[in-house]
Specification:
Layout (H helix, E strand, L loop, with lengths): L1 E5 L2 E5 L1 H12 L11 H10 L29 H14 L1 H15 L7 H21 L3 H22 L10 E5 L5 E6 L5 E4 L7 E11 L7 H10 L2 E9 L1
Antiparallel strand pairs: 1-2, 2-6, 3-4, 4-5, 6-7
């Protein structure tokens, strides 16, 4: 879950909703620059964080009883293997993009956990196997994955409300072309991206969220009930060239 403090309590965006927002952004990309296996890539972007029903996770509460932001969660090789099993059941390309995402996230910290280190070794072998089966050059696959990561990064910036005010620019990530893209908000609240990578000159995307007006929860089940009973709302953003 993506958790943000608000005056009334907490704002919660499910990871899967964040993935759907990332896929909405991806679907606006210039047609001529889209990676291969386009539909498969969109699915990989939308579902890259799937693998566990997050509302039922026993890790979703802090010691103080607050909803836990995803960045505070412990490593879980079991969950990551679930993610890979789901990805592989759809297509080899989906599995390749998801596996590269796992390597991107955890390669630099794999030595902090033996099970995580073993998982990353498994992914290294699996990626080589998939590249061979799909007859895809690693450079092509890595460029396609860079697109996946770019959409994921922009979606997170939006969900975590990190876009700066007063027209201050901030980096999103490097795109598949190796260029660092920047985002900023104009005086009317419209979002701008430079260089502009999208097909349309103007579009909107949205994500659903829930507000919790209770600061502490005794159990995960209590948190889950509150989330199920909370009003589902949507936040939208307008992008313009």
């Amino acid at each position: 879950m993506i958790v943000k403090t608000i005056p009334e309590g907490w704002e919660v965006i499910y990871q899967r909703a964040h993935g759907l927002l990332a896929a909405q952004l991806a679907n606006q990309w210039k047609v001529v620059d889209r990676p291969p296996y386009w539909t498969h890539t969109l699915i990989a972007i939308a579902e890259h964080d799937d693998g566990m029903a997050e509302s039922q996770s026993q890790e979703n509460l802090t010691e103080a009883g607050a909803p836990k932001h995803f960045q505070l969660l412990k490593y879980s090789a079991t969950q990551y293997r679930n993610v890979m099993e789901i990805a592989a059941s759809k297509s080899r390309w989906n599995a390749l993009m998801t596996s590269l995402h796992m390597s991107f996230l955890y390669e630099g910290i794999k030595h902090e956990d033996k099970e995580l280190e073993q998982f990353i070794k498994e992914q290294d072998r699996y990626q080589k196997q998939l590249l061979k089966e799909l007859l895809i050059d690693r450079k092509v696959a890595e460029q396609a994955y860079q697109f996946v990561e770019w959409c994921d990064a922009l979606s997170l910036l939006l969900c975590m409300d990190q876009v700066q005010s007063d027209q201050r620019r901030m980096d999103i990530s490097k795109g598949p072309d190796g260029i660092m893209y920047q985002i900023w908000q104009d005086t009317k609240g419209t979002l701008r991206v430079d260089p502009w990578p999208f097909e349309a000159g103007q579009f909107e995307v949205e994500v659903e969220y829930r507000h919790l007006h209770q600061l502490q929860f005794k159990t995960v089940e209590q948190l889950n009930r509150a989330l199920n009973e909370a009003e589902v709302q949507a936040r939208s953003w307008e992008f313009r060239k």
